[in-house]
Amino acid sequence: MPEFRRGPINDRWVIIAPERAKRPSDYKQKGPEQPAQPPESCPFCPGNEEKTPPEIYRVQEPEGSWRVRVVPNKFPALSDYPDLGCTAVEGIFDRMNGIGTHEVIIETPEHAKEIPDLPIEQIKLIVDTYILRLSKLRENEFYQYVLLFKNHGKEAGASLTHPHSQIIATPIVPSHVREMLQAAKAYYEQKERCLFCDILLTELQAEDRVIEVTDEYVVLTPYDSRFPFEMMIYPRVHSHDFTEMDEKTRWGLARALKRTLYRLKALLGDPPYNLVLHNSPNPAPRPGEPKYWSILPYDYHWRMEVIPRLTKLAGFEWGTGFYINPMPPEDAARYLREVEIPED
To answer: Nearest CA to 96 among 85, 82, 104?
Structure first.
């Protein structure tokens, strides 16, 4: 029977509708999309570096070749302005300049190798680059939030097929992020425990939505999954800030990313997906708000979300704000657990 579910993080209802369920083979993709352009003309491939804006950072080999590059987005969502330019328009509407930074992390020089196909050492370099760029952008106290995300496949918003991630820094904490932060703060004030640590404890006891457990990470399908095969990667030890990872947890994340995305690719045939980091906002003090998110180290817990793009939102979803998920997360976790992963 269908049921409504609501988790403790987001104030939203999800409809789990197993009567509409399909087997994983029904979601399986036909295969990777054809490259929009051959490697020789791809702006992210070696030899074509002049086709991108001047690079910000690179991981370089001794002989001069690169393994990871960071460049400004050629078509940025936000740009540099001298100030925010906050103003009211016609009394009730607010406006400000589109200030921010938009960067692209080119994950590998290899045109057709995604994270599941890369060696662990290369994925570790990607993780190191994520941390370096997030840390650097948060030095700018103007930026209240820095978002790391990856769009894989045209249906997920990728305009180029060469493997890459993006970072956008904004002067605003998005309302969606604020809702999660406020839920975490309210839970901590009531129980003096981290909401996300309690979720992990509950899921590890229940087991039916857990995909994998390692020394450093837990991979699971959320109780209130909005989409088929939606997954979360949680650090097992409480940590509010992605950039504070030590070497052991960086290597652990590299392995968790490779194995999690391999499961998705092997089971569903390389579907489009979005990978999103949910991290704490910039802890820099705010003028007039000295206690801004002051208990973040205690009440928040960073995590990564993987959202396969297998279903489309239609009129009911847009009209109600509800999501209909035809794949119960318990079934999704079971199918994903059953994927055989080759040894590194």
So the answer is: 85
- 164 is annotated as an active-site residue: yes
Q: Note down the domain range covering 247.
A: 3-337
201 in a structural domain: yes
- Whether the pTM exceeds 0.85: the reply is yes
Predicted confidence band of residue 344 (pLDDT cuts 50, 70, 90): low
SS3 335: helix
Q: What is the CATH number of the domain that holds 47?
A: 3.30.428.10
Number of domains within the chain: 1
Q: 């460049």: which residue's tokens?
A: 71
What residue type is assigned to position 185 of the chain? K
Contact 333, 225 (CB under 8 A): no
The H or E element containing residue 235 is strand 231-235
3-state SS string for 119-185: CHHHHHHHHHHHHHHHHHHCCCCCCCEEEEEEEECHHHCCCCCCCEEEEEEECCCCHHHHHHHHHHH
Catalytic residue, chosen from 152, 162, 164, 240, is 164
Residue 25 forms part of a structural domain: yes
